[in-house]
Structures are given as structure tokens and as C-alpha cells.
Design brief:
Two copies of one chain form a homodimer.
Chain A lengths: L12 H4 L9 H4 L14 H6 L6 E6 L6 H14 L4 E5 H4 L11 H20 L3 E5 L5 H10 L5 E7 L2 H7 L4 H6 L21 E4 L5 H14 L6
Parallel strand pairs in A: 1-3, 1-4, 2-3, 4-5
Helix pairs in contact in A: 4-10, 6-7
């Protein structure tokens, strides 16, 4: 018979299952029996609990120039104002760091999204609300990230901005270069963008401000009780 | 003349410099002037501030079997009990996820530590106290991670356990395999371990319990005011 002792009597045992890692080294360093509980790993539920939130990954996807980074920053600002604990992953902090070894070949673009997904998962394990802002044009890549997370913790947000509008904005001048053939495999021009089939949220930036887009996402998170209060 | 407006009058401006990212897309989506402030990215200081802690990376290094994971879990448990916001990176959650594509060649081991360092940095940017538990045998790799972080935020902890003691424990049976020549490039046996020259903390697990080792680290963090109270 397998007897389990619940070290947190106020919390149901099922919440802890699968998160209590039994460490190989535990027996080596346990010199006094009364400190054994301290060797138990802190669970992801506990890390989220002290933040008064449920962790999740808000995955923004859309064309270059659709407004992903603007909405990500706006959303983080709103969540921060509500006292929520957030992280943002975007080209600024990933391309020059973790993924600096990757280029823009198809294999590298797949690996780019895979790593971002794994980091987002680790951050959700730490209890954070993670906001990511990457084109992530392929369904298979986005679905891979979804598969890493518990149900309801992956929130796919389609930033639906028509190509013509993105191209009209062309804030970075990339569409002009892509049209001139200077950038190969440019999403929307010479490489496909696979529209999400069942995104949790769709926002239309052509008719709504970034602020309103972010507010729509906040409302969704409230509905999920990701934000408790 | 360059006039700067401090959007958080209660906090010194210098804290904000370099963290206020001006987003390329800001102008596109700003449909009304009164929401402009919301497009300002949340700074790393702000993310840490709501957690009542200063972020840092507690980098545990030492031989296989030295006790890194046990001390990491024990330390996280103590910090969590103090209401601190933590994350742990170790072989369990990195090798089968983010770094699943890496093997044990020298190049892969360097890349393993590089990616872990980049993720730790991203998590510190999110305001967390990050604890890592990897052999990380090479000084150059550890120093690379140190260089990613602001001064005082990288805390190198040398888990000083004599090779004979690690080999005596041999909880995973790896030393026996390494001695039998079944594991090439095994740290301490057939590959060097470069002892930290100037670690912030050294703990000796042969004479002190894991609990006491973790307590020593907590005391150090209090001294740094990483933990405010």
C-alpha cells in the first residue's frame, strides 16, 4: 500500500501530485530528520499562489507590423497596474540573447519558437503571466507550445491586422525591402502566415486601439480567473 | 537640451534609464493621446518592486553529487516561506525541455550553460530570485553568465564537496560508470572541474547539512538586501 502524507494539510493532495519531485540527492544531505520537508521542491501552484494569480502564457501572433509588441507592452502595463506578476518575451529580449545563434532559415525559425515556448513554460511554472510577441506564422509551432502547457494556460491571441494595413504602416521599412526581394521568406509576402483556427481571442487593430485590444485580453483573463480579484 | 519627464515621481529617474523601451510600433496604434503612457514597457525594477525583492541569480556550481539540487530545493523552500518569488532551473526542467536538442559534446555543454544563463537573465528581468543547479565546470561559461547580469545580481555559490565524497555517495551510479569508461568527459574523472576563484559564497557539504548550506545563502541574500525585510 502506498501511503502519502500531505505536507500542506490545508491544500488538497491532488494539487501536489506530480509536482513533488523526489530528488536523488535527498538522502545524502539529510543529516537530521526534522528538516526533511524543506528538501521538497516548491510546486508551481505554490509559486503562483503567493502571486495571487494563475499562471498563463498569452501568445500574441500576427503579421510583422500588426501591433504585437505595442499590445504586449500595453497589456503588461495594465496587468502590472493590477498588481499582477508578468514577463514579456519579444524580439528585443530574445533575438539578441537566448536565440542569438539562430538565423531566419525555416529550421531556425522553428527552433526560435520552440525555445520561446519552453522559456514561457518555465516562466509559467514560476507563477508568472507571460506575454509573448512573435509573428509565429506556423500553426504547428504554436500548437507545440500549447502542448507544453496545462489546458487553459495557453491563450492564443490573433492580432488580426490586414496585410495592406501592416504594409501601409511599415514602421521598420521591412515590407518595402521584402517587396524589393531583399528579405527572403518574409511572412505575408514570400512566406505564408497561417491564421489561427481556434484562437482564444482575436483583436482587430485596424478598427480598435492598442489600449482597447489589451483591455479585451484583460477581460478574458478575468473571466478565466487568471486574475483573481 | 534633453528634458526627461519622470513618469514615476516617487522613484529616482536613474532607475528607469535604459529600461524605458521606445517601441517602434507606438505611433501606429496610438489613436488617442491620453493612453500614450500605457505603451511604455514595464521596467525590470517595477517587476521586482511589486515582489518586494531585488532580483538575482543564485548560481550553484559543483561536482555531480555535490548536493546542488538538494540545496537548490532547500533554498527555494526557505525563500518561499519568506514570501519570496523564486524559480529553479535544474537538469529536471531544462534537459528535457529547452535543451533537449543538446548532447554532451564540449560545444553542447557550453551552449547548455549559455542558454541557461540567458533564461536566468530573462527571469531576473521578471523580478525573480533564480536558483540554478548545474555542474557548470568551466569558469569561462560561468563568467559569461555573470557578464549578462548587473553587478551584485550574479551570486556564484561553490558547492564544495570533495570528489571522494561525491563518488562515495554516487546516488545515480554515474561515477561507477565513468570509472568503467562508460561515460566519456565525466566531470572530475575524465573532464576537469574548474573551482571558482572568487565565488560569492562557498558551502562545504561534507561538514554541514543542506539546510545549513541553504541558510548560509539566505543570510547572504539578506545582507545584499535582495530580501528586504
Amino acid at each position: 500500500m502506498n501511503i502519502r502524507v500531505n505536507p500542506w494539510p490545508n491544500r488538497p493532495l491532488f494539487l501536489l501530485e506530480g509536482t513533488l519531485r523526489v530528488n536523488d540527492h535527498t538522502n545524502d544531505l539529510r543529516r537530521s530528520a526534522n528538516v526533511q520537508w524543506q528538501h521538497t521542491a516548491v510546486s508551481r501552484e505554490e509559486r503562483a499562489h503567493i502571486k495571487h494569480q494563475k499562471p498563463c502564457v498569452v501568445w500574441l501572433t500576427g503579421l510583422s507590423g500588426a501591433g504585437k509588441s505595442t499590445i504586449a507592452n500595453c497589456l503588461e502595463r495594465k496587468l502590472h497596474a493590477l498588481g499582477r506578476h508578468t514577463a514579456v518575451l519579444d524580439g528585443d529580449n530574445v533575438r539578441h540573447g537566448l536565440n542569438r545563434d539562430l538565423g531566419f532559415t525555416e529550421a531556425d525559425r522553428v527552433e526560435n519558437i520552440r525555445r520561446i515556448g519552453e522559456v514561457a513554460k518555465l516562466m509559467a511554472d514560476a507563477g508568472l503571466i507571460v506575454i509573448t510577441a512573435f509573428i509565429s506564422p506556423f500553426r504547428a509551432d504554436r500548437d507545440l507550445v500549447r502542448s507544453l502547457l496545462p489546458p487553459e494556460e495557453f491563450i492564443e491571441v490573433y492580432i488580426n491586422t490586414p496585410l495592406e494595413e501592416c504594409e501601409r504602416r511599415d514602421t521598420k521599412g521591412l515590407y518595402m525591402k521584402a517587396r524589393a526581394g531583399e528579405i527572403p521568406h518574409f511572412t505575408g509576402i514570400s512566406s505564408p502566415y497561417e491564421v489561427p483556427l481556434y484562437p482564444e481571442i482575436t483583436v482587430e487593430t485596424a478598427s480598435v486601439t492598442a489600449d482597447e485590444c489589451a483591455e479585451k485580453i484583460v477581460r478574458y483573463l478575468r473571466g478565466l480567473e487568471t486574475i483573481y480579484s
